[in-house]
Amino acid sequence: MYYIIIGGVLSALPVVYVKKYIETDCLYFIYIAIIINTLLLYVYSKLFREREASIGYAFVKIISIIMVMAYGMCILGEHPDTNKKIGLILGIFTLYYLS
User: How many domains in the chain?
Assistant: First the structure.
């Protein structure tokens, strides 16, 4: 479970840094995103030893999507439409049924 949560965080963070790069045009944010993605590969290697790849990858991606949506709503002030809300609810149900 530990690697799933770390993987979810590491999978969501590059989105934040790419967004910062777009806003500032500073290449350091891209370098940070590359380093984070490299760490994510290591976490995947550990995670897939504990769980099936299809289940572990699905967990990481769904957690990442939830985190990116929360970041968008709380920090960037984005408002999700009905489809995004339904997708979020389905993602949470997916986590429940996969566990």
Answer: 1
